[in-house]
Amino acid sequence: MLKASENPPIIWPQGESICDFTGLWWVAHTKSRNEKALAHDLISKNIDYFLPMTWKVQRQKQRTIRSLLPLFSGYLFFCGEENDRVEVLRTNRVASIIEVKDQQKLLSELRQIEQALAAGAPLTPYKYIETGQRCKVIAGPLLDLQGIVVTTKNETRLVLQIDMLGQAASVEIDIDMIEPVDEQVVKFRDKSRD
Asked: What CATH number matches the domain at 4-100, 2.40.320.10, 3.40.50.2000, 3.30.1370.60, 3.30.70.940?
């Protein structure tokens, strides 16, 4: 387990936004538990990447363990040219590289995750939802994020999806901070309870 200071940055190069990256986006489907090691390799190769991560807190016996884990287990997003894609394959940490057909859609979806992380919102991995009511945040640090609203127990969460991966993350949101984007409402079954 890495110390907090040994974890790679979420965005490389640090201090930039993923909107500033140039080149094509690719998705690296990593070998098991290789996301952070691949990120370190990409830093040494000076390849721009985005590895959304979130803190997980566990209690074991009488101590609390905090781990920084990838939000989308097994995936790292990187941006570059064909030679960068080849360099990523040469790391021997990748099971496959997924070509991104709709570059703008992926960037838009990743930008929402980036904005939520920058705002300090505690994102948690969430089972992907194909349909539901799409809403937009109308105030606060998450302003303009769009996602599907779900209600679990006594909380409302906004689910931010990465369609091409079939994965999503959710953030708790106050119902007064959102408004519907369209009128379509589809009942949602929480698959995490099955």
From this structure: 3.30.70.940
